[in-house]
Amino acid sequence: MRFSFWPNPSQSYTDVLALAQHVERTGWDGFWYADHFMPNAEDTSAPWPEAWTTLSAIAASVPRLRIGSLVSGNTYRHPAVLAKMAATLDHISGGRVVLGLGAGWQENEHDQYGLDFYDVPERLARLDEACQVINALYKDSKANFAGKYYQLTDATLEPKPVQSPMPLMIGGGGEKVTLRITAQHATEWNVWGTVDTLKHKMEVLDAHCERLGRNPKDIQRSAVALLFMSDDKAFVEKMKAADLQQAAIIGSVAEVKEIVAQYEAIGVDELIVPDFTLGPAEQKLSTLDTFITQVAGR
Known about the structure:
Layout lengths: L1 E5 L6 H13 L4 E4 L17 H11 L4 E4 L2 E2 L5 H15 L3 E6 L4 H7 L6 H20 L3 E4 L4 E5 L12 E4 L6 H8 L2 E5 L2 H18 L7 E5 L1 E4 L3 H9 L6 E4 L1 H13 L4 E5 L6 H15 L3
Parallel strand pairs: 1-2, 1-13, 2-3, 3-5, 4-5, 5-8, 8-9, 9-10, 10-13, 11-12
Antiparallel strand pairs: 6-7
Helix pairs in contact: 1-2, 2-3, 3-5, 6-7, 9-10
C-alpha cells in the first residue's frame, strides 16, 4: 500500500514546501493538493494558493514523490487546457503526475468568479465528456471529439505526457454515475471513507467494470480519512464520540495500524492522510513521523 500526504491549502507555500520535503525524506509515497480557489466558508478571505501552480513548484523542488490534484473541478477549466497543464507538469516532474478530476461541487467559488455551476446531472455529463477529451488528446496524434459540451477538431497535444497512459483519477463516490464514469475512463479512483464505505463502494465500482467489460484490477483505489492518532485514551474516546461529518481513522498507534491493515486487506492501494487534524507544526511532524514509521512500517 502507498501512503500519501495532503496538506491544508490554506498554508503558505513555504510551509507546504517544507512539509513536502519532510514527507519525502521520511518515506512517504505521494503528495496531493486540493484544487479550490477559496475556502468553502462564509469568510473566504484566507490565503489560498492556486493548486496547479503550487504542484509545479513542488514537482521541481521535490524529486521523488508522486504528485497530483485531489481533485480538479472540471468546471474550472476546459479539459483540453487541463490536459495540457498536466502533461507539461508530467515532463517537469519526470513522469510523476496523477491528473485528479471531479465534477466540481463548491458553489461559492463559482459564484464569486462567475463560473457556470450547472446542476448535478450536467456537471456529471460534462465530467464524462471531459474524460474522453483528455484521454483522446493523450492517445491520438490528432484528436477529434464531438460531444454536447466539448468538441475537438484535429486537436494536437504535444509533447505527450511522459507516462503512457497518463494516470487519470476520478474523485467521488456517487454510485450510479461517478463510479460508472470511473469504470469507463479512469486508471485511479479516490473517495473519502471508512473501511466499510470503501468496501461497499469498491463492490459497486467492480460491478460497473463488469458491465462495461473492464478489468477492475486496472483501476487503482485510494482512500482519504481524517487522522486522530493518540495514546491519550480520553482524547481518543472523545473523538470517537464526536460527530465529525467526515470519515476518520481514530485510535492509538496500535489501533490505527490495525485499521490501516483493514484498508489494505480489502484492496485499497493508497491511503491519503490530510494534515487538517494534526495540530501545529511540531505536533504535526511528530504525528506524521509516528504514522510512517510505526503504522506504515517505513
